[in-house]
Design brief:
It is built from no helices and twelve strands. By secondary structure, it is mainly beta.
Length: 222
């Protein structure tokens, strides 16, 4: 059975908004968030996420993201994203660790670092950020502060992100906002529904630079 540190589920990472091409949203938080939360799987537990992303131009990307916690307070994750139109594929390896213990009625902190590669032209990026999650009776609030760096550039691109999740409904809705240097701000919303203790379905809608991005996915925990 899936267990957790923190109020919600474990996460992968906040969106790499301007690292490169269609992979700008492929290294991301626990479905369907793009903003990271300060939680990891419990030791010996993990999950697999699978989702499809539809871009404003009709392009479709399929992503699969397994994650596992080999020790307490630490999680290792991998994301594979494949663009059906270009046959391009991105690979992300990510590490997340708790800085302070999770708190179901308060705040805790974590940190995420990762690298992303795009196999056809060996483009990619490295990234990292600090995460703060605060859990309240109405839901949870997540904030991220960090940066990405493209391999072809010598400077970092700072980013900031925030998300609110709301409890007490048949589904768990969220709203989120992400901003990064040299990129248009992104605003989005989504919902997730746990069908069993191990299985959920989810979806999201985002707007960035006047364009719409849709996702539909699922998650299996073990």
């Amino acid at each position: 059975m899936y267990t957790y540190y923190g109020f919600r589920r474990s996460a992968l990472a906040c969106a790499l908004m301007s690292a490169f091409g269609f992979f700008a949203t492929q290294a991301q938080a626990g479905r369907p968030l793009d903003v990271d939360d300060a939680g990891v799987n419990a030791k010996g537990n993990g999950h697999v996420e699978l989702w499809s992303t539809r871009g404003a131009d009709g392009s479709r990307t399929w992503s699969v993201a397994p994650a596992f916690a080999p020790i307490d307070g630490f999680e290792l994750a991998y994301v594979r994203a494949a663009d059906q139109s270009t046959q391009d594929t991105g690979h992300t390896l990510q590490f997340k660790g708790l800085i302070t213990p999770s708190n179901e009625n308060g705040c805790n902190q974590a940190a995420t670092v990762g690298i992303t590669r795009r196999n056809h032209d060996l483009a990619g990026a490295r990234y990292g950020w600090l995460i703060n999650t605060c859990n309240q009776s109405w839901g949870s609030w997540h904030t991220n502060i960090g940066a990405t760096q493209d391999y072809s550039e010598s400077y970092n691109k700072p980013l900031a992100a925030m998300a609110l999740e709301f409890s007490g409904f048949p589904v768990v809705p969220h709203i989120q906002w992400i901003a990064q240097k040299q990129a248009m701000p992104q605003f989005g919303l989504g919902v997730r529904k746990a069908l069993t203790d191990q299985f959920q379905i989810d979806g999201s809608f985002s707007r960035q630079g006047g364009q719409s991005i849709w996702t539909l996915g699922t998650k299996f925990s073990f």
